[in-house]
Amino acid sequence: MQRVINNNLGMIPLAGICSYEEACALGYDIDRNVNLLKRYIYAVSQLNQVFAAHIANVPEWEVKCAFSLHIWLEAEHSAALRKRVMEMREPPLHLDKVPDVRLEAFFQELIRAQSTLELVVGLYRVAKPELLRAVRKHLCETNSLVDHPTCRVLKMIAAEQEEMMAWGESAIQALIQTDEDEARSTEWQKHLESFLQEAGGISGESKRPEDAPQKTPRSDGSRYVMKLEPSRDDRFIDPYNAAAKIDEYYVDDSLLADERTYALIYKRLREMDVPEWMGPIIYQTEGKPWEYYQDLSRQLWDEARHAMLGEVGLYQDGVEFYKYPIEYRTSMALNCCFKPLEAHVILWYIEQGLMPRKTGKQLEWAIAKQSDNELAKTFQDYDWADEVLHAQIGRRWLVPEFESLEKLTQFGESLMERNWAEKAKLDSRSAQSQWWPQFLAEIRESKQRIRVTQQQKGAVTSDELVK
Known about the structure:
467 residues
């Protein structure tokens, strides 16, 4: 119905947000809106915790990579929703209060997934689709003009949840190898869906079953105890092998520029152990402001991204990223022998040690710049920027724990001695056979072969090939 014809000078009215008729819909009042947003906050915050609890122990590298991105996105979604609620209501907001014990029961089941397949099914076929359904319903029913700030946040969340779900579905398809896998995944999906249905979905507004069958929960009501030991799948060999002195090779100016740069690329690859020890820090540290989890989730994602840069750096020159040892002595030692706060201090201490110009990240960038590896130079440029942020994150959250930067630094120094000692204990789990010369010979040969192939295709000049 067109109630009146306004002269809008031929332009789309209401900033293009919606039509006049759509703007006349009542939509949600503030109370209903806020109550729904609080349930979404709880859901995405719990998803962040599920990722944190499992990122070390899932063995598949690709799953670790995706979880590292998704833990940060969930933290960002929670922060955006929290900000929106704060705009609509005065404190106290009770944003970390459990909104519904039945919804809590669902997430307590989800976090107790016993395999990677169960985990990704629960996350990407149950939790996220239901969250997306609730968000889309919210977008359809709220008044998109009066509630535009909420709609903007929800649209961002919906888009990124869809992207995460697309990755998750592809992972599920890859992980289901047998009929037994299919049966187990279906059974687990139904188990979780029954808990979610009992809660009325993420929104709490879906119809609840009247005569639901009795469920046997895995949760006993206590907080989930995560598996602390890092794990890698069968592609990865000799994970305690520290024979290659990567941190010495790249600073050795007697070595050729390409070897020093490959050492840097491998150092990036090795950074997967940082998400493996940051997940336990995030999950086991309770009662912090959400900004703490947001900051640490961002750092965790950056560190995983650095490992992926190493992965790409080897791909560029034709070597499989899992072919040679990627040791995880640090994450194993820190997860099993240090408290979360101690592990965080060690992380900060290492990051802070990378700030000096002559020995830190600027040096790494300069080393890469000396080689002909343009991609490595770009990688180091962004890695440098990330580490500056990470040092700031550490100071922001750790200095208040120790009263001063000086006391924090002293504590970090004392912890590093323990760290090296615990890592040294793990050396006996490997024969420590030297593999670096073989890696270096293979990647140099592969790089040359790739360049010859590119030259034959007209991709590079002969002058470039000589380099």
